[in-house]
Amino acid sequence: MARSTIFFICFLTLTALHGIHAVEYLVNNRATTTPGGIRFRNELGAEYTKQRMAAASEFIWRIFQQNTPAERINRPQVILFVDQESKYVAYVVNNEIHVHDDYIENIKGDIKWDFNGVLFHEMTHIWQNGLGKAPVAVTEVIADYVRLKANYIPAHWVKPGGGDRWDQGYDVTARFFDYCNGLKNGFVAELNKKMKDGYSDSYFVDLLGKNVNQLWTDYKANSDSSYTGSAAANSGVVKSDFKNSADVNSGAEHSVTVNSGDAFADTSVNCMAYSAETFVARSNNLNHAAGLKFDPG
Ligand SMILES: [Zn+2]
């Protein structure tokens, strides 16, 4: 009897501790009557989405090497909304992920695979440091790095070694970050920790012992020199509209440059995730932005 009582108390204690740190995942489909909202309900659904939100969180915490709840951003609740009106395909504000029903409606190919790519990107914004402090371009690249590691990368991404500049953004810089993390497992985790207070190019020296331009030179030298898949994309052609998936698939977006200062005047909104077929970010700001640059500081 005594033993079972002790066991019961332990059980209660564990349950209580778990309750303190458990994250509650919620889904609110506010587009129940639109084609995209109906497709969400029929082909994805709230239960599946909540499972994937939890799985993405576990994955991201591992990448950030946040083994205990105390190391993570404290968010008792994360809510995913399916919205009818949005400038973006998906974005994050605080503990909310907003997904546009129009994006769901127009997913081509495997809906779950495409949705997970966007979801893992957006969930990274939920848990990462630096939003509103570090340049948008850097936080976006970390979200794309997570997407890369989760293996939800669109076919049009450059191969490892592709690109012309380390700060080109999107797939190019996500691949570069993957190389950096290969030099020191935990680079991205450490960078995320440092980004609590902002961002500086000097973090590369702090973490890897070389400045970022030297690292990029090493990266290019180590990559397969026969790979030229992104050459055309990086020729300097600037597209001003991401909507056409033909443009995306041609690789033209690799030369599109987004100024982190222009991209989101409201830094509380974080997005730039894109579907495998169509760029998610379709704001006028993004479409007219120029010069992706990681502003130090
Ligand atoms: Zn994003």
Automatic annotation (TrEMBL):
Signal peptide from the UniProt entry: 1-22
Keywords per UniProt: Signal
Domain of life: Eukaryota
Protein name: Plant basic secretory protein (BSP) family protein
InterPro entries from the UniProt entry: Uncharacterised_BSP
Signal in keyword set: yes
Pfam families the UniProt entry points to: BSP (PF04450)
Record's keyword annotation contains Signal: yes
Organism of provenance: Xanthoceras sorbifolium
